[in-house]
């Protein structure tokens, strides 16, 4: 390897450093000149911008001066226009006020003339009244002198002469007056009958409803005949459980895919129907399940009863009913009378009584309320002793219904006298609803046979003289021979008649038996 000359290396390095320093110096000088040139350019641009800004500001001030001068001119023109309009309006108002003042002055002038005329007429009236008073005084004086002369000539006073004339007129025209009164009475009766018929016919036409006859048995449809065997259960345990829990009789015959429920209590019958339908849907039929489904059916039926009662009250517009009365109304949904649904019958009676009350100008609200509640006793008559009328009166008193409503309930079958016209209307509406074609299943022939059979049973007993079925067969009055039946025997006789009626006669509700024993003593004075 050759030897390296350190001197040359150092010289090269020094040259390199000097070259670098010169390069940096030249570069710095270049950038300095460039920066100074740019600063100068910026100052020139700034000066130009300042000049332009001054020019723009001067132009803006000049334009503002021009706009200000224009606005002032426009404002002056607007002020002049508004002043002109105000002056014109003021002139028109002044003219209108002048016209009104003229009219007012003219009216005042007319009023003054009228007042003067009125005063003149008033003076004339006063003068005439004075003249009339003078004439009346002269007439009274003449009348008194004439009466005194007539009394002197006839020898009778005025009172005696009046009495004499009236007596003579009474004797002469009494027969004609009696005939006239009879004619008026007959005409009044005829008019009253015609008006009553028109009112009843109008009410019947305005409230026309359809009827579906109902029965005291319920039919439950089954999916197949195999279900009958499951309902009967092993050795009949299921059917016995159903009958024991619900209190109804199950009739399982050859009718395909159906069983019949029979009970005098419509609520029990409905509970049994719902229970069996639930069991059929569920498929599990045993005594424990039967009891569970029966409890569910009772709860559902209670809710349905409440809903039906509220709906009936709402449909008839009867407000502020006690909650228990609403429940009892709902129970009537499952009560029938000769195939007629009692709740529907009560709603119809309510509307018929209300319509007739409106026609007669009576209290339609009272008539509608009493009509809805008139058969409320039928909701419990299969559970409690007594007629549905008496039970309905007790219920109405218990829940603080008004005396007029109670009287309507009590009098709708004629058990007591009607104290208000509304009570008569409720009784009439009840008869109309029951007598509608198709409303009830029992026809006239069947009804007459039942009444005849009732009287025949009563007269078949020894010592009975006569018997009369009244209140549409709800009561029978038995008159016994006093010499053959004693007072003590009357009680036994009434009980025996009741037993025979229960054994031999089919009838709705209850029949009241009244045994009457009357003793008369007769003699003749000679």
Q: What would you note in describing this structure?
A:
This protein has 526 residues and is mainly α. It folds into four domains: 18-149; 156-206; 217-435, Ribosomal Protein S8, Chain: A, domain 1 (2-Layer Sandwich); 444-517, K homology (KH) domain (GMP Synthetase, Chain A, domain 3), CATH 3.30.300.20. It has 14 helices and eight strands. The chain has helices spanning 6-154, 158-206, 226-232, 237-246, 266-282, 287-316, 323-331, 342-360, 364-373, 388-398, 403-411, 421-435, 444-459, 487-504; strands at residues 217-221, 249-251, 258-262, 336-337, 340-341, 464-470, 475-480, 512-517. The strands form three sheets. The chain has a three-stranded antiparallel beta sheet with strand order 1-3-2, covered by helices on one side. It has a three-stranded mixed beta sheet with strand order 6-7-8, with helices on one face. β4 (336-337) and β5 (340-341) form a beta hairpin. α4 (237-246) runs parallel beside α6 and α10 runs antiparallel to α11. The protein is flat.
- Name of the CATH first level of the largest domain: Alpha Beta
Fourth CATH level, the homologous superfamily of the largest domain: K Homology domain, type 1
Counting H and I runs of at least 4 residues, what is the number of helices?
A: 14
Largest sheet: 3 strands, antiparallel
Q: Give me the side-by-side strand order of the main sheet.
A: 1-3-2
Number of domains: 4
What would CATH call the architecture of the largest domain? 2-Layer Sandwich
Number of distinct beta strands: 8
Oligomer: single chain
Q: What gross morphology would you assign?
A: flat
**SSE order, one letter for each helix or strand:** HHEHHEEHHHEEHHHHHHEEHE
Strand portion, in percent? 5-15%
Secondary structure class reads mainly alpha
Helix content: over 70%
CATH topology value of the largest domain: Ribosomal Protein S8, Chain: A, domain 1
Query: What are the segments in which pLDDT stays under 50 over at least 5 consecutive residues?
Result: none
For the terminal residues, how far apart are their CA atoms? 202 Å
Overall residue-averaged pLDDT value = 82
Over the alpha carbons, how many angstroms does the gyration radius reach? 57 Å
């Amino acid at each position: 390897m050759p030897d390296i000359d350190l001197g040359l290396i150092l010289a090269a390095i020094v040259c390199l450093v000097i070259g670098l320093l010169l390069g940096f110096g030249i570069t710095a000088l270049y950038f300095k000149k460039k920066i100074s040139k740019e600063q100068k350019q910026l100052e020139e641009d700034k000066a130009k911008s300042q000049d332009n800004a001054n020019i723009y500001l001067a132009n803006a001030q000049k334009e503002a001066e021009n706009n200000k001068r224009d606005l002032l001119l426009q404002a002056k023109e607007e002020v002049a226009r508004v002043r002109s309009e105000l002056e014109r309006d003021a002139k028109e108002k002044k003219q209108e006020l002048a016209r009104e003042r003229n009219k007012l002055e003219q009216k005042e002038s007319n009023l003054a003339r009228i007042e003067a005329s009125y005063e003149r007429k008033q003076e004339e009236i006063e003068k005439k009244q004075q003249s009339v008073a003078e004439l009346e005084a002269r007439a009274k004086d003449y009348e008194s002198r004439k009466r005194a002369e007539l009394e002197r000539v006839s020898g009778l006073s005025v009172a005696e002469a009046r009495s004499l004339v009236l007596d003579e007129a009474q004797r002469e025209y009494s027969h004609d007056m009696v005939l006239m009164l009879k004619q008026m009475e007959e005409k009044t009766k005829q008019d009253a009958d015609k008006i009553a018929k028109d009112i009843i016919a109008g009410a019947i036409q305005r409230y026309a409803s359809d009827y579906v006859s109902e029965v005291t048995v319920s039919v439950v449809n089954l999916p197949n005949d195999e279900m009958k065997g499951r309902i009967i259960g092993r050795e009949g345990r299921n059917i016995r459980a159903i009958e024991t829990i619900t209190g109804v009789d199950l009739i399982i015959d050859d009718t395909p895919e159906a069983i019949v429920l029979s009970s005098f209590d419509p609520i029990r019958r409905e509970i049994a129907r719902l229970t069996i339908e639930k069991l059929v849907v569920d498929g599990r039929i045993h005594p424990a399940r039967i009891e569970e489904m029966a409890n569910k059916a009772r709860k559902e039926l209670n809710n349905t009863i409440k809903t039906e009662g509220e709906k009936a009250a709402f449909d008839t517009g009867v407000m502020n009913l006690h909650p228990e009365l609403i429940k009892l109304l709902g129970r009537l949904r499952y009560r029938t009378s000769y195939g007629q649904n009692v709740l529907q019958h009560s709603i119809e009676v309510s509307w018929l009584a209300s319509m007739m009350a409106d026609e007669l100008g009576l209290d339609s609200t009272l008539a509608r309320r009493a009509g809805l509640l008139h058969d409320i006793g039928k909701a419990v008559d299969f559970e409690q002793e007594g007629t549905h009328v008496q039970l309905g009166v007790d219920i109405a008193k218990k829940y603080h219904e008004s005396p007029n409503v109670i009287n309507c309930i009590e009098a709708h079958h004629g058990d007591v006298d009607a104290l208000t016209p509304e009570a008569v209307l409720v009784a009439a509406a009840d008869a109309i609803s029951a007598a509608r074609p198709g409303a009830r299943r029992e026809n006239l022939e069947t009804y007459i046979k039942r009444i005849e059979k009732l009287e025949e049973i009563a007269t078949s007993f020894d010592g009975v003289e006569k018997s009369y079925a009244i209140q549409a067969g709800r009561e029978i009055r038995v008159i016994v021979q006093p010499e053959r039946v004693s007072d003590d025997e009357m009680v036994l006789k009434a009980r025996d008649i009741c037993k025979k009626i229960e054994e031999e006669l089919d009838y709705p509700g209850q029949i009241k038996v009244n045994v009457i024993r009357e003793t008369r003593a007769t003699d003749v004075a000679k």
